[in-house]
Amino acid sequence: MSAPGYAEAPRGRRPTDGDRFKEGLAGPVRGVLQELGQIATFSGQAMAELRGVFRYTSEILRQVGILVTGSLVVVCLMQFVMGMQCATEANYVLRGYGATAYSGVFTAYCGIREMGPYMWGYIISAKVGCGLVAELGSMRINNEFDAMSSLGINPMRYVVATRLMACIIAFPLIYMVAMAFHNLANQLIIINQIGEVSLGGWEGVHYLFLRPLDFFYSEIKIMVMGIAIVLVAMYYGYNARGGPVGVGTATARSMILNLILVHVIGSTFTMVFWGLNPSMPVGG
Amino acid sequence: MSSVVQPPTLPGTPDQPVAPPPGKKQSTGIAAILEEIAAVLLMTFRAARMSVVPPFSWKGEFIEQTVLVIKRCFFPVVISTTFFGFGAPGLQGGNLVNVFGTVDRLGAFFVMASVREFAPWINGMVVAGVGGTAICADLGARKVRQELDALAVLGMDAVREIVVPRFLALGLVTALMNLIAIVFGVLGGWFAAVVVFGDTSAGYLATFSSNFTLPDLLGSIIKTSLFGFIIAAVCCYKGMTVKGGAEGVGRAVNQAVVMSFVGIWAFNFVFTTTLLAAFPETGNLH
């Protein structure tokens, strides 16, 4: 008879230190993989429900409205701050090379290729992502999804897929407006605050190095980031449990995964789009 | 007898919406935002005073929180900074210095990129997003379960017992994590310089170390420590003023993380501009 407390030991023997060590290493890995699998399943279901989602067009439009009125201002504000940051560093870094006149190269690449999408990822995961976890989480705690199912409404379609579609519609447009603020901040810092480059000199280089194709790539980057963030957030909200505490914990967990995803997606797409072909209009 | 005994609220059930006390008008719009910022500042000053005035009853909780935040933030910080260092400053910055024909200067570029910029704020974002949200959710749950009221009944000061340890823990952990973030950011840049652009490790490290000055490092550490204080103040305040049930906790966490991000970025810009203007030699290439 096994000792009390070791009843579940394999084949009735006490777990050795080796067993416990193996379990300690394998447990977290297994947990992460299980969770990723569940998120993938959830995302697949949400994507599948997108086919019939236009039955609820009014709900989609309402969600677009919420996104624009609730998040546009803070996204624009953050992109403005990011633009100030990029412009400051552009001036001070290129001063070291004696190439301040080429600050436009730095600001063009910093904004549209890299920091615009990253900043987008951060603020969308904070504002939209956490908001969705809180909203869906409290719906789950109040048993609203069960109520919907019993009324014959599919919550995956009515709640999850409509929000996903709303994000797909609204995100590219919000990003365009926000990047306008980014470029405005570049100009304000480089021309008006530091003032080592003339307006014409900066604008000439900056807009020469901003190719339309780069903007298109940038949109692809932020769409992939945005959809991943929204899906992860809705997974954690949809599966929240354990009362008010559970909603808070789910929000915190969604942020961990979202921050990692933002960086991984961002640098992967940089490698794919510009890694070995910077596509610069100068040089050899 | 005028006093009426209220029926106790069961833990876990959503509170009834509480009307504001008579005589105090609920402010809206800009006034509400200003009031909130003022309340956060007041709590911060109180926490700062409590952290130097004995009794230091928060020591145990401080160690507990420090370990907890390090455990939660370590792997996200490592993964995020490595990937970021490889992608944005590594590849794009590498493209830029490649045009100038000096890929070995990528090391010098990483002093700006990693030490001054991205290691501090990625680290701030991860601590805010991972540690700050967890703290806010935890305190919000305590507020909903009326544990904070219970503390007050026992005669314990919630700021001393709960806010001060988290405040100091985040200030310390964010600065320590910054060093790890710098190391892994530079490692990501090494991948870009050596593996992608085919430069030598020696060139990368030599330009990095000759440009790495003390004001850069100290500025980076002080900056991240202040990030930690901002995060702790916002998240504790938001958690301790939760209203309503599950929805209230979720909304508080959401607002806390947005407010800390905005605070981090606004502060980051002011700090970096001041540092660069005060120590112009940090911008020199050696």
TrEMBL record, chain A:
Residues 1-22 are annotated as: Disordered. Signal peptide: none annotated. The keyword Transmembrane helix applies. Keywords: Membrane, Transmembrane, Transmembrane helix. The chain crosses the membrane at residues 60-80, 92-112, 118-137, 158-178, 215-236, 256-276. Residues 10-22 have a biased composition (Basic and acidic residues). InterPro entries: Permease_MalE. It comes from the Bacteria. This is ABC transporter permease. It comes from Patulibacter brassicae.
TrEMBL record, chain B:
The keyword Protein biosynthesis does not apply. Residues 1-26 are annotated as: Disordered. It comes from the Bacteria. InterPro entries: Permease_MalE. Keywords: Membrane, Transmembrane, Transmembrane helix. The keyword Mitochondrion does not apply. The chain crosses the membrane at residues 69-88, 118-137, 167-197, 217-237, 257-279. PANTHER family: ABC TRANSPORTER PERMEASE PROTEIN-RELATED, PROTEIN TRIGALACTOSYLDIACYLGLYCEROL 1, CHLOROPLASTIC. This is ABC transporter permease.
